[in-house]
């Protein structure tokens, strides 16, 4: 019977994957910036080499003994082990050096915890002729190879001193004096000199006879003392005891052999007190002890002590019952006169250990010792508490009493750290699982969704939906969506604008962090900052009750062919990732002239077993060169998906764990933002006639429709292209690559089919529809349009991807589809007769990888951390703008396909949204503004055909004009990049319209990049209605006409702009820019212009005071980061608000940590009269507040706006707005035009 306590078989197949991950640049890098996880853990193997390891493994095809299996398995594990481990070695038993050495089963540390890839020879060069280890066969031998050689040199003999060996291991981790291992280095039990600070010196000794042929002699053989004699020996010795004792079969001693006896020197007295050098170097370093034993603890003490069954003698290190006699006596002096130890109980601070645990006197103090190592500080010289956790592997103990296995399990302190293994595969699997476990280790990017009050459309309701997630070192990141409310008038919490929970208590602090007593409205209890507790995740229906869909067959998602269920045969194993591959980590180069493409002669690669190889070939004859694809392409885990696997994966996707339990899990919402849709059942506007659902997409791959009242999921949809990710989540391996699903923003279109001013999608006669559009962002290169008019019967309206002929230039779909109307010629025979068509406009996307991301290691493109590589890119996908029919998805127009010369000009990706303008206010788009990753802002004039000399057509958009509005990227490797749309605003100055364009730069894929000086820009067009840009003024360049609002020392540049000097008064200026003041600070969200103010957010890898890491070389110091919200005067960049509410205006305030904020949101409170009552004809004010991120109170409201200071006297951003002065008067209204 093959026994493995844990499910390890899949680990044996997929273990290489666990060690071959590549960190790609993306927004998640701020969660991997904590380099403490890169500090190599210390792993000390403590391995049994007692006499019982000579026993054969029953059923082993190779007829190996336990020790033989151990040697082979340990070698395989070392070959595949991750490189970022410090591994050391220790063992017990294999004594046999005669009566002077009966204690030598207890040993010191054989080899210190050392990086796996270190070369051994330089380490032991000065000791190789005097220590007790085999010598490395050459200078290239690494630690991973050498440790296998050391284990390979062992013989099996002796007893099982588990507790004393644990005690010695503890002394090593703590840096205490060497105990049982203190002796001259040549002796087999001695600690290796590399493990301590100074060698002991033997000052008194005697000589004794030893049998060298039987391994009894130590390394100090007296010269000339050896003699070889011809002896009769037993032909077949049968072992009966774990110590190797037994009998000679048939009493046959007729066999002969040459036996060499010698005299060796035995040290009686040592001087010096060597201390172990603790391997614990860093405060964040993890430390582990891995014990493997094939039996119970047992001690013989001295010849004739009796059968070593573990129930008699106590561990000598425990000095049990000092002064006692018999089995309770302190036998230390008889065992090793030179030893100086501390009683274990005193060492760990307990009065007495539990006597005879599991019935074994010999195991006394073992559990207390390992648990003390896991809780007490093992290196007080470092900050914090350094602990050592213990794993245990019970090997080939199927014939042992249950008590023996229970004893080993009692030593375990590592989570899920006990394993049983009875054969070679299981032993290797146990070691692999342990190393994998050792190698492994509620935040929110997405902004809350503030819902619009459907009864008035003028104010926001009090409901707030906050997406949150938690970073994980594994593939699966937990997420959730929680509902809270806004205290609009302060009547609940005493503070206007406060976000509060079900318990009427504030939910967040001033930085947007959840308070411990936060209780969302969907949760059954207080959940605080817990991601998994409460929220929509807690209300997920049981797996059998969920309505889950995909698009495997047709457009009706509710059809049998689209059910995401194991019974749906349209979902094939191939869709689930069958026959999939991934590319391993490599630095292989194929640029050498004369070498065929795809062949590399230089670099490194990791093979499918996780082993790294160095390539140093000859490019002139290809000797030693490799085919890159062949050596780096590996099958994905589970790529051979059986029928049972398929069922298990689909059940898992429905929320069922492999053991059949309920998995209440939602994926993370990293960049996507939830949206709320309200369904009206009739023409009324009261709440009874409305039902709202919030639509939330996750990187698990689902688009969830959630009832806003209960938080219960109505249904969820997973695109078929994401089905392949289910297996990755199911395996949930360690990964530095985030898996993306639906991470794009959602657009909702409520289509008024009969133009009656009311949307009633349930009324088919009206023709009203509700469409929902989304892209995938990093999850793919496709857009979906769902018809959700009937909430109970969703369908696919259309779907496009880069595999479609009209969209081959489309990259990762980052750009949010923007709704607009476009006037299009009705037909070719009447090219001057146009009709309005509902369209969607979006950018071409982000070129994160060339030809699509394949597997888990895509070819790096704009994501590359190498600035030179990014700067050299020319063949970039996503350099386009698309316009499609909103109802059908058919392409109507794109820059590259329809505008002559556009392809030659537009060379950089356009991941941003597109700003659409209707300059002549005729209800149709006529101008576009957008920015690209090259730092260029573009203008597109769509209606050129209306004004050219050719009067035969009016709506020929191939004549659209593409021109550069501004060139701001800089040059070389420090290029500024734009990932978001420019914010465009029109205003009047002295009766003339001017336009401002605001945008900030920042490398979205690499938020920790410190190299680029990013900026925020406000540019001005003083003649925006000109049919063509004035080439003498455009494109705007970074020259003297573009003013910096600060000087190099950070002070305001008031001589040029600021105070009373604005873009209106300084007519020679083309705009202003602001050098973001903190190192690495960048704009990672679009700006918002509101009432002559500009609001935007930034992210910087510095703390609140602008400081980076105190010690750049300390891997345990977590790099700080902070998010800031800015509010500035649109026209001169001055501070206009008291953002931190200290009585003085400032440009920015820290508004978050460990998150990238989204764009600001303008929230309108309920209109009221000046006395707080209902509005009257001449008395109606509305308070406006500006919110950003999850700040507990608004960034701006009536309490902290200012009209003085550096702002230049411009009206307040937020506060009470007199609606009677800005809204047209309504003299009557008919709510039902049908009458």
Automatic annotation (TrEMBL):
Transmembrane segments: none annotated. Residues 1-25 form the signal peptide. Keywords: Signal. SUPFAM superfamilies: Quinoprotein alcohol dehydrogenase-like, vWA-like. The keyword Membrane does not apply. The keyword GTP-binding does not apply. InterPro entries: Quinoprotein_ADH-like_sf, vWFA_dom_sf, WD40/YVTN_repeat-like_dom_sf. This is Uncharacterized protein.
């Amino acid at each position: 019977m093959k026994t493995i306590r844990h499910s390890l078989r899949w680990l044996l197949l997929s273990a290489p994957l666990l060690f071959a991950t590549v960190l790609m640049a993306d927004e998640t890098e701020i969660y991997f910036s904590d380099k403490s996880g890169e500090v190599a853990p210390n792993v000390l193997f403590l391995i049994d080499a007692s006499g019982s390891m000579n026993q054969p493994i029953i059923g082993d095809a190779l007829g190996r003994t336990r020790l033989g299996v151990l040697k082979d398995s340990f070698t395989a594990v070392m070959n595949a082990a991750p490189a970022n481990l410090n591994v050391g070695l220790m063992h017990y038993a294999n004594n046999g050096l005669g009566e002077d050495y009966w204690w030598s089963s207890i040993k010191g540390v054989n080899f210190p915890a050392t990086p796996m890839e270190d070369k051994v020879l330089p380490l032991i060069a000065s000791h190789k002729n005097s220590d007790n280890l085999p010598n490395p066969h050459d200078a290239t031998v690494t630690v991973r190879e050498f440790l296998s050689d050391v284990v390979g040199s062992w013989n099996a003999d002796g007893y099982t001193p588990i507790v004393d060996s644990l005690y010695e291991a503890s002394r090593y981790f703590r840096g205490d004096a060497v105990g049982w291992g203190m002796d001259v280095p040549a002796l087999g039990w001695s600690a290796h000199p590399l493990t301590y600070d100074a060698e002991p010196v033997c000052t008194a000794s005697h000589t004794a006879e030893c049998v060298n042929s039987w391994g009894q002699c130590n390394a100090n053989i007296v010269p000339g003392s050896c003699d070889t004699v011809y002896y009769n020996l037993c032909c077949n010795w049968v072992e009966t005891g774990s110590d190797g004792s037994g009998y000679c079969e048939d009493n046959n001693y007729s066999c002969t052999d040459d036996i060499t006896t010698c005299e060796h020197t035995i040290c009686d007295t040592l001087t010096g007190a060597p201390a172990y050098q603790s391997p614990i170097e860093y405060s964040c370093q993890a430390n582990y002890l891995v014990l493997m034993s094939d039996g119970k603890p047992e001690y013989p003490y001295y010849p004739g002590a009796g059968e070593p069954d573990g129930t008699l003698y106590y561990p000598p290190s425990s000095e049990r019952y000092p002064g006692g006699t018999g089995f309770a006596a302190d036998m230390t002096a008889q065992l090793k006169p030179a030893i100086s130890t501390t009683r274990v109980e005193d060492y760990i601070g307990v009065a007495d250990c539990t006597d005879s645990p599991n019935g074994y006197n010999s195991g006394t103090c073992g559990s207390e010792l390992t648990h003390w190592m896991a809780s007490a500080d093992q290196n007080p010289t470092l900050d914090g508490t350094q602990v050592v956790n213990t794993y245990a592997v019970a090997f080939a103990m199927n014939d042992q009493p249950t008590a023996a296995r229970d004893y080993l399990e009692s030593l375990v302190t590592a989570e899920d750290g006990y394993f049983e293994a009875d054969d070679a595969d299981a032993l290797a699997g146990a070691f692999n699982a342990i190393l994998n476990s050792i190698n492994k280790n509620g935040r929110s990017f997405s902004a809350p969704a503030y819902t619009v009050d459907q009864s008035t459309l003028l104010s926001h309701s009090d409901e707030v939906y906050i997406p949150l997630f938690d970073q994980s070192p594994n593939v699966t990141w937990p997420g959730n969506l929680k509902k809270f409310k806004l205290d609009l008038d302060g009547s609940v919490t005493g503070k206007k604008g406060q976000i509060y929970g079900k318990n009427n208590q504030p939910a967040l602090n001033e930085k947007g962090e959840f308070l411990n007593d936060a209780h969302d409205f969907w949760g059954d209890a207080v959940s605080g900052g817990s991601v998994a507790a409460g929220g929509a995740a807690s209300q997920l229906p049981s797996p059998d009750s969920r309505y889950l869909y995909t698009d495997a067959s047709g457009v009706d998602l509710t059809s049998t062919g689209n059910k995401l269920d194991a019974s749906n045969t349209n979902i094939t194993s191939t869709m689930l990732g069958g026959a999939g591959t991934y590319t391993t980590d490599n630095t292989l180069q194929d640029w050498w002239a004369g070498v065929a493409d795809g062949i590399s002669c230089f670099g490194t690669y990791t093979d499918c077993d996780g082993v790294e190889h160095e390539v140093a070939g000859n490019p002139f004859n290809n000797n030693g060169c490799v085919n890159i694809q062949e050596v780096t392409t590996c099958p994905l885990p589970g790529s051979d998906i059986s029928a049972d696997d398929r069922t298990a994966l689909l059940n898992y996707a429905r929320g069922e764990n492999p053991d059949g339990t309920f998995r209440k899990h939602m994926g993370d919402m990293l960049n996507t933002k939830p949206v709320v849709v309200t369904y009206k059942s009739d023409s009324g506007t009261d709440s009874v006639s409305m039902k709202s659902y919030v639509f939330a997409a996750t990187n698990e791959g689902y688009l969830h429709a959630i009832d806003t009242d209960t938080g219960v999921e109505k249904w969820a949809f997973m695109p078929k292209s994401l089905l392949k990710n289910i297996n990755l989540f199911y395996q949930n391996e360690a990964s530095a690559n985030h898996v993306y699903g639906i991470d794009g923003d959602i657009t909702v279109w409520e289509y008024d089919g009969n133009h009656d001013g009311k949307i009633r999608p349930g009324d088919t006669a009206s023709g009203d529809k509700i469409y929902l559009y989304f892209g995938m962002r990093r999850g793919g290169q496709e857009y979906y349009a769902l018809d959700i008019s009937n909430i109970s019967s969703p369908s696919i309206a259309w779907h496009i991807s880069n595999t479609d002929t009209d969209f081959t230039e489309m990259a990762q779909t980052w750009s949010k589809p923007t709704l607009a109307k476009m006037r299009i010629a009705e037909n070719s025979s009447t090219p001057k007769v146009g009709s309005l068509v509902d369209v969607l406009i979006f950018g071409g996307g982000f070129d994160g990888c060339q030809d699509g991301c394949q597997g888990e290691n895509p070819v790096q493109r704009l994501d590359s951390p190498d600035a030179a590589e990014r700067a050299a890119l020319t063949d970039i996908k996503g350099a386009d703008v698309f316009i499609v029919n909103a109802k059908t998805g058919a392409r109507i127009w794109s820059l590259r396909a329809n505008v002559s010369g556009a392809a030659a000009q537009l060379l950089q990706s356009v991941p941003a949204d597109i700003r659409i303008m209707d300059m002549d206010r005729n209800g149709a788009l006529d101008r576009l503004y957008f920015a690209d990753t090259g730092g260029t802002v573009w203008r597109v004039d769509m209606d050129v055909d209306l004004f050219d000399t050719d009067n035969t057509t009016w709506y020929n958009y191939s004549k659209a004009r593409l021109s550069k509005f501004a060139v701001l990227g800089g040059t070389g490797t420090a290029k500024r990049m734009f990932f978001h749309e420019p914010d465009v605003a029109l205003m009047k100055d002295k009766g003339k319209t001017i336009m401002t364009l605001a945008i900030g730069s920042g490398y979205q894929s690499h938020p920790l990049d410190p190299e680029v000086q990013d900026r925020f820009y406000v540019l001005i067009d003083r003649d925006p209605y000109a049919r063509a840009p004035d080439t003498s003024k455009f494109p705007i360049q970074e020259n003297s006409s573009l003013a910096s609002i600060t000087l190099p020392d950070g002070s305001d540049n008031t001589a040029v702009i600021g105070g009373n000097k604005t873009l209106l008064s300084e007519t020679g200026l083309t705009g202003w820019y602001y050098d973001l003041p903190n190192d690495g600070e960048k704009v990672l969200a679009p700006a918002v212009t509101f009432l002559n103010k500009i609001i935007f957010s930034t992210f910087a890898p510095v703390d609140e005071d602008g400081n980076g890491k105190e010690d750049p070389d300390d891997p345990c110091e977590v790099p700080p980061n902070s998010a800031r919200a800015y509010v500035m005067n649109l026209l001169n960049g001055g501070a206009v608000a008291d953002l931190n509410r200290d009585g003085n205006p400032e440009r920015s305030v820290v508004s978050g940590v460990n998150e990238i904020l989204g764009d600001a949101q303008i929230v309108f409170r309920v209109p009221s009269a000046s006395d707080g009552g209902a509005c009257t004809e001449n008395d109606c004010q509305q308070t406006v507040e500006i919110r950003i991120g999850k700040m507990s109170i608004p960034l701006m409201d009536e309490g902290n706006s200012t009209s003085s200071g550096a702002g230049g006297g411009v009206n307040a951003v937020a506060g009470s707005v007199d609606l009677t002065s800005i809204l047209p008067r309504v003299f009557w209204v008919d709510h039902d035009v049908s009458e």
